[in-house]
């Protein structure tokens, strides 16, 4: 798939997820075969940029792969300014968020709330595309609610505005993350516009990846929650797409190595205090099984990096003994 001057080496993209797709996570996914990893959402309001959270999200030193930065907001001028600023900081692609269903984003009429206002959508897209000389991509949902699925209309506006590619999550804003993603709207969008279309939503297995590509005709897949605690899902999916066969599950030795590396990168990026807190959710995802409930509860009580690393080491020592 081509995004402006950038030719992706496969059809797999990491979805931007607030509080998840930081640099350590993105780099892991890229190493396991994702062709592109979009950064966490940054609000276009410059008043909040001088915070530790924003500064870390804007840092691209040590970034692997193409640097795609997602921005969110409802004011065309602010969004254009934010796009220019991030390009100056090293962004190679600007991604616009019109898919986030979170109340704190939607109450500012940003994220998926914008799908209710096609005229404002066009104003924002026109302003951002005109503001920068890098490709601008867009992420949306299928509509505001199941009775108002206007994804095809928004896709046509995006194409007219010069958007380089469009990612579509197969739920409306009202659906949040409940129920199953629907792919009929994504299929209709792909049949309507000529820009690349990326399908997103409930892609958690190689078999589902194959089905969604075939059913929608999408140019690529965007994977979010399916990669949490499982960055190797991109390798698994690509192998299945290439061969029709499934890889053996990731072994404990590889999982052990990845978890320790992930912890080290989190501590390095955020510092020990914040890194320890952020590590809790990631380790929970790596071991998200019913029998690991006690491990996660104990791990979440740890207050320093050494204790966290030691507990992971002990866990895998016990796995070896059990086997």
Written overview of the protein:
β3, α1 and β4 form a beta-alpha-beta unit. The mean pLDDT is 91. The protein is 46% helix and 14% strand. The chain is built from 13 helices and ten strands. α6 runs parallel beside α7 and α10 runs antiparallel to α11. With 323 residues, the protein is of the alpha/beta class. The strands form two sheets. It has an eight-stranded parallel barrel with strand order 3-4-5-6-7-8-9-10, surrounded by seven helices. It has a two-stranded antiparallel sheet with strand order 1-2.
Show the helix and strand layout.
Layout: E1 2-3, E2 6-7, E3 12-14, H1 23-31, E4 36-43, H2 52-58, E5 68-72, H3 76-88, E6 93-98, H4 103-106, H5 118-131, E7 136-141, H6 151-161, E8 165-169, H7 184-192, E9 197-200, H8 206-216, E10 220-223, H9 233-243, H10 252-270, H11 272-286, H12 293-299, H13 305-322
What's the short version?
46% of the residues lie in helices and 14% in strands. The chain is of the alpha/beta class and 323 residues long.
Number of continuous helical runs: 13
> Approximately how much beta-strand content do the residues carry?
5-15%
For the sheet with most strands, the description reads: 8 strands, parallel, barrel
Shape: globular
Instruction: Give the oligomer, counting copies of the same chain as homo and different chains as hetero.
Output: single chain
Helix fraction by DSSP (H/I, runs of at least 4): 40-55%
Total beta strand runs: 10
Unreliable sequence segments: none
Rg, please? 20 Å
Question: Span from first to last CA?
Answer: 43 Å
List the secondary-structure elements in sequence, H or E.
EEEHEHEHEHHEHEHEHEHHHHH
Structural class designation? alpha/beta
Strand order of the largest sheet: 3-4-5-6-7-8-9-10
What's the pLDDT, averaged over the residues?
91
């Amino acid at each position: 798939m081509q995004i402006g001057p950038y030719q992706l080496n496969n059809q797999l993209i990491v979805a931007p997820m607030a509080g998840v797709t930081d640099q350590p996570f993105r780099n892991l996914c890229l190493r396991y075969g994702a062709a592109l990893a979009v950064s966490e959402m940054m609000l276009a309001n410059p008043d909040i940029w001088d915070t530790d959270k924003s500064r870390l999200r804007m840092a691209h030193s040590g970034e692997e792969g193409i640097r795609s930065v997602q921005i969110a907001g409802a004011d065309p001028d602010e969004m254009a300014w934010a796009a220019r600023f991030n390009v100056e900081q090293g962004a190679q692609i600007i991604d616009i968020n019109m898919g986030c269903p979170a109340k704190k984003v939607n109450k500012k009429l940003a994220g998926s709330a914008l799908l209710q206002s096609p005229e404002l959508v066009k104003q924002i897209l026109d302003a951002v595309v005109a503001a920068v000389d890098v490709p601008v991509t867009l992420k949306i949902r299928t509509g505001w609610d199941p009775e108002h699925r206007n994804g095809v209309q928004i896709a046509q506006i995006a194409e007219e505005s010069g958007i380089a590619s469009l990612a579509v999550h197969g739920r409306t804003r009202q659906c949040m993350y409940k129920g199953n993603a629907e792919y009929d709207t994504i299929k209709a969008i792909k049949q309507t516009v000529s820009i690349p279309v990326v399908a997103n939503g409930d892609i958690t297995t190689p078999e589902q990846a194959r089905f969604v590509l075939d059913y929608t005709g999408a140019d690529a897949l965007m994977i979010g929650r399916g990669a949490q605690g499982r960055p190797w899902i991109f390798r698994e999916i690509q192998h299945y797409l290439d061969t029709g066969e499934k890889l053996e599950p990731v072994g404990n030795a590889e999982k052990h190595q990845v978890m320790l590396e992930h912890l080290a990168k989190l501590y390095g990026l955020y510092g020990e205090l914040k890194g320890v807190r952020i590590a809790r959710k990631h380790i929970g995802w790596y071991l998200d099984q019913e029998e690991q409930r006690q491990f996660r509860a104990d791990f979440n009580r740890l207050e320093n990096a050494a204790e966290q690393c030691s507990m992971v080491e002990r866990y895998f020592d016990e796995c070896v003994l059990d086997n």
